[in-house]
Amino acid sequence: MGIRFARALTGKGPIAADIDDGRLAAAQNAGAVATYNTRDETAANRLMVETGGGVFAAVDFVGSEKSFAFANGIVRKGGKIIVVGLFGGSMSMPLPMFPLRALSIAGSFVGSLAEAAEMMRLVRGGMIDPIPLEKRPLSRAGTTLDDLRAGRVTGRVVLTPD
Question: Fewest beta carbons within 10 Å, which of 1, 38, 58, 133?
Answer without folding.
Answer: 133
